[in-house]
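User: quick one, fold this
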Amino acid sequence: MADRKDILIINGKDMGKNLKRELLRMGYNVEEVFDGNTGLEQLESENYPVILLNSELPGIEGNRILKSIKEMRPFSEVIVLGEHSTMRGAFDSMRLGAYDYLSRPFDLSQVISTIEEAIEHCKKHKSKNQGSRELSHQSFSSNMVGESSAMKSILDLVQKVAPTNSAVLVQGETGTGKGLIANAIHSNSPRWDKSFIVVNCSAIPDTLLESELFGYEKGAFTDATRLKHGLLEAADGGTLFLDEVSEISPSLQSKLLRVVETGDFRRLGSNREMQVDLRIVCATNRDLYEEVASRRFREDLYYRLSVVTITVPPLRKRPEDIPLLVDFFLDNLKISGKGEKIISPEAMEMLQDYDWPGNIRELRNVIERMIILSERNTIKVRDLPFTTPNHKAAKQSSLMLSGERYLTLEQLEKIYIEKVLKNCHGHRSRAAKILGVTRHTLYNKLRHFGIDEKRIASFKSFRKK
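Assistant:
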């Protein structure tokens, strides 16, 4: 559809049965939900040029939903339908980005006229911003935060590839944010107002994945009691995101190749050719070229899907981004009954030293856990849920090389004692308890290693930095 006439009505209670009926009669595609949270869930997968929002939703303030809509879909136009005509209500709605504010009793012709104007405004807004929108951190959702050179390179690459229709392959370890990059590509493309369909290829059995993608006709197999439209059709005009694409079986790979090359496909049980216009973005936590070399993935499909390849580095290779991510999660993870939290410099240092095998996803879970369990406003080292196996302190106390030379056990012991003292801010009794020795033994070791009072005092001042 060249000019989309899709409308979402977020209704708290009946705003007038005639409104939806009249919109349908005039050829609009109307979806109606009856609470704000359901409306926001609908907007996660579908885009609407115009949204009609009841200002008095049950149990939740309409302005809060309006703000969330404009953050999620900045180019959609929201028309607020208020119960009462108040200057304050209209002012607040317009301040939050509403296109217009209409109050009861609704003049149906006025509502229709405002919707038409909003659709035209949406089209002009899209045209004006097409090709000229610059990527920023706000273009990414959730975890895509960072100022490292690796992240800047990814931002630059996404900015260049987003306006095109080229297929993109995103590679990286689990939890690095591959799906968020795919979403950013779609959101900054000419298809931004169309569907973004996500398919987790590893979560769907291969026997079902084909029917999910291609759909099927009634009677195509035993349980096919009705026609089912596949996800290829759902993504028509938009973007299809195939997550963990390396899990697709060889037989399904050949069918997908035809879709990528021509846009043609058939529903299961049908002889009729159908065609879709979609962009394909794929992600995998494997090296897809190695999968090709091992003959587990078709070479011709690989080259079709990897016109542009974006490799996302693991979090351990960009520790400079960790403080930004921690601050982001502390600001955005709102947990009932928990106030704002800050993190101590010592805890932040340990977070930067940790290996993060689960990458950003693990970091988010750790921050959420600390927010919940910490009784204080400041999150400290003792609040961290992990121990030392993946920590640099453990690396330094393992068989590691210093240049080309192994450290001696005595050198390792000194390094570890200093690390524990630093994390305890020079508190020797606490350090002795962690080390599993008596205070007397610890004092003897401090003298042996030449760790004097001046050095211990530097650990005490560490918390003030």
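User: anything notable?
Assistant: Residues 128-143, 388-404 have pLDDT under 50 and may be disordered.
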